[in-house]
Amino acid sequence: MSTEVNQIEELANKEYKYGFVSDIEAESFPSGLDEDIIRQLSEIKKEPEFMLEWRLKAYKHWLTMEEPNWANIKYPPIDYQAISYYSAPKKKPAKKNLDEVDPELLRTYEKLGISLEEQKVLSGVAVDAVFDSVSVATTFKSKLAELGIIFCSMSDAIQNHPELVKKYLGSVVPYTDNFFATLNSAVFSDGSFVYIPKGVRCPMELSTYFRINAANTGQFERTLIIADEGAYVSYLEGCTAPMRDENQLHAAVVELVALDNAQIKYSTVQNWYPGDKNGIGGIYNFVTKRGACRGVNSKISWTQVETGSAITWKYPSCLLIGDNSIGEFYSVAVTNNFQQADTGTKMIHMGKNTRSTIISKGISAGKSNNSYRGQVKIIKRADNARNFSQCDSLLIGDKCGAHTFPYLDINNPSAQIEHEATTSKIGEDQIFYLNQRGISTEDAIGMIVNGYCKEVFKELPMEFAVEAQKLLSVSLEGSVG
Amino acid sequence: MLQIKNIHASIEGKEILKGINLKVNAGEVHAIMGPNGSGKSTLAQVLAGRQEYEVTKGEVIYNNKDLLSLSPEDRAREGIFLAFQYPIEIPGVSNTNLLKTALNEIRKYNGQEELDAMEFLALLKSKMKLVEMDQSLLNRAVNEGFSGGEKKRNEILQMAVLEPKLAILDETDSGLDIDALRIVASGVNKLRSEDRAIIVVTHYQRLLNYIVPDFVHVLYNGRIVKSGTKELALELEEKGYDWLKDQKELVMN
Asked: Residues of B with CB below 8 A from A438's CB?
């Protein structure tokens, strides 16, 4: 089983490496943003006219907006004119061997169980093409093509499937949605596009599982996944290995569309650079993720494991439009040192007999701040809607913070809403009990925290779950004295 | 195997152990009895390495090592096992996972090869018979929702799997009905061996009907005031602990 999964992962890696990177030779743009920059960007990417128009509309709208400040996070003002909105994938000078790599980074890789070869790729050491297996990659691609599945970069999709892009891009997260999503709409660089045709069950986990991620993902990723009637897809995003990126601001948008009887399962492991122990550096991650259960009996599940970034601002949400549609949100958010996370979900019940489940596990350590923010809204005509929410917070040490901000907006008397919330601390007695069984304090904390997150991890694809567990332990390293 | 020399220990500045001396050899079963608050559980916790207790004086030699300088996990890996009076619940962590991790940590420390999942399960099954434990408990989270009896049996199962050199049973009889007590005691008896020492900490003589000790020590106000054989336990049962106040004065003088 696991070798099979590994193979698929490798394939997916290949796919990204060789299939997704747009072949553009260009210098970086000078920093700053104006209409000209957007025109140039669109031109370099050889986009059709409608795309440019959309970007420009977004840009004009963005100029009228203000950066939101309601989240429970603090950061210095971002200078949007100091950012360069396009740069060609940079080639970093290759290191000769692992001896030249930061030993701290290597130690982390080791703990995550990443193979030596992969360690080299991740840390920018020159490697032979050990992963290169063109025949396997071709099999993978042709298998998807046979089923009519489109899995390509957003740039490719704009070129080759403009009708689908035109129909669905911005249909869930409109360009007017919010400050960061609007900025993304104007300047998004690339991302993934998936279309699963009617009645097709995607036979493998699709992934941008770019552990081996040679190219820049860019600051402004745009992902669009469409599951047509009766289709099913499971999509994995992210990376368990620590990702270094010089771009401090990340503002991605993900849109999911599920038509009648369709199902989308979207899993994320986010491990961007969180900054150092003193809170210096780290990624600001402002993400808009939303899925529309447009069809009857459709279902969208979000599962996320958030351990990275200095700031996480993220609310993967479901619009439950179709009757009997289902939305799910399973989340583990870990903050350590000076990290700040304000994350949660919105479940908007619009159809009849719609159901939603929210399981959120926040873990705070060090001097970090971890907030759950969630909204459950039931509109007037959404008869017999049901929601179950469980929001748990776990504190490690006494200098961190955990907060829960649930918003309920119920406009139909037939709704059934349950909300449970707990806050607990890792007990000295739990740690001692495990110590007394021969388990070190560090491993004991890993074990206790993983136990605490079990309900969420069981929603992850197996291989991903194993890595997420290891990642959690690594993220919390040194959190107890 | 174990030599406790004039141990003094306190918690939050209050002295609980006031000079304990005790020698335990491999193969022996020692019972430590005493009224509430006499320091029985403190002694057990100090031997296991609980940080809250500060050892202010004395030393403990365990298999030629200075026990007090070892971390709690290293004491466990050196073969010390504490069956907790109140076993701790760890939500979401399966019993099997805990036991496998613990056993492999101990094996690794002692230069033995780690067991894989299949080998471990085979071992576990054979040990479960000792405590007549139901399979279903293995996949449940550690002690979560266990009855009092199940928790205590689970402790003995852990002992059986980890095969300690020195096992300390802290009030293992408390909260058990007579049937559970019999099962637990018979599990412990099956684990008695020539290379293993067992210290049974108990308030009541009842358990000692089932686990017959080689030696009985009476702890009172932080000191061992009387030592003897199993008959001493019976005498205590008959006379109660009040009778010891005079003994204590004897010791003091």
From this structure: 73, 76-77, 102-103, 105-106, 109, 162
Type of residue at A392: D
Query: Which helix (H) or strand (E) covers residue A320, if one does?
Result: strand A317-320
Residues A282-292 as b/e (b if ≥16 CB within 10 A, e otherwise) read bbbbbbbbbbb
Among B76, B88, B93, whose Cβ lies nearest the Cβ of A438? B76
Q: What is the ipTM for the molecules in this complex?
A: 0.94
**Which residues of A fall within a CB distance of 8 Å from B139?**
none
Question: Sign of the C-alpha dihedral, residues A440, A445, A448, A449?
Answer: negative
Q: Which residues contact A214 (CB under 8 A, 6 or more apart)?
A: A17, A21, A89, A121
Contact yes or no for A327/A291 (Cβ under 8 A): yes
What pTM value is reported for the model? 0.79
Using a CB-CB cut-off of 8 Å, the residues of chain A touching B88 are 427, 429-430, 433
Type of residue at B212: V
Q: Cβ A429–B88 below 8 Å, yes or no?
A: yes
pLDDT, one tens digit per residue, over A342-389 is 999 999 999 999 999 999 999 988 888 899 999 999 999 999 999 999
Q: Which of B91, B102, B106 sits opposite A452 (nearest CB)?
A: B91
Strands B54-62 and B14-24: unpaired
Q: Is B157 on the interface with A (CB under 8 A)?
A: no
Nearest residue, CB atoms, A439 vs list B81, B84, B101: B101
Tell me the HSE value of A205 on the side-chain side, using a 13 A CA sphere: 24
Q: How far is B105 from chain A (nearest CA, A)?
A: 6
Structure tokens at B242: 């009040």
- Closest-CA residue to B221 (of B22, B30, B19): B19
**CA atoms of B245 and B211, how far apart (whole Å):** 27
pLDDT for res A105: 62
Contact criterion met (CB < 8 Å) for B48 and A448:
no
Q: What backbone phi and psi angles, to 5 degrees, belong to B144?
A: -75, 120
Residue A346, both tokens: 């919105």
Whose CA is closest to A161, among A192, A140, A202, A188? A192
> How far, in Å, are A23, A330, A422, B195 from residue A361 at the CA level?
41, 8, 10, 46
Distance of CA B62 to the CA centre of its chain: 15
Phi/psi for B12 (5° steps) reads 45, 45
Residues 45-74 of chain B with CB under 8 A from chain A are 48-52, 71-73
CB-nearest partner of A433 from B51, B84, B92? B84
Longest distance between any two alpha carbons in chain B, whole Å: 60
Question: Which pair of tokens denotes residue A427?
Answer: 């007990």
Task: For residue A445, give the chain B residue with the closest CA.
Answer: B90
Best interface-test mutation with A: which of B41, B52, B73, B169 has the largest number of A CBs within 10 A? B73
pLDDT tens per residue across span B55-114: 999 999 999 999 999 999 999 999 999 999 999 999 999 999 999 999 999 999 999 999
| Cα A244 to the center of its chain, rounded Å | 16
Is B73–A441 a contact, with Cβ atoms under 8 angstroms apart?
Answer: yes
Q: Using alpha carbons only, give the angle A465, A202, A454 rounded to the nearest 5 degrees.
A: 20
Q: Which residues make Cβ contacts (< 8 Å) with residue B196, sequence separation at least 6?
A: B26, B27, B163, B164, B165, B166, B167
Residue A242 has pLDDT above 70, yes or no: no
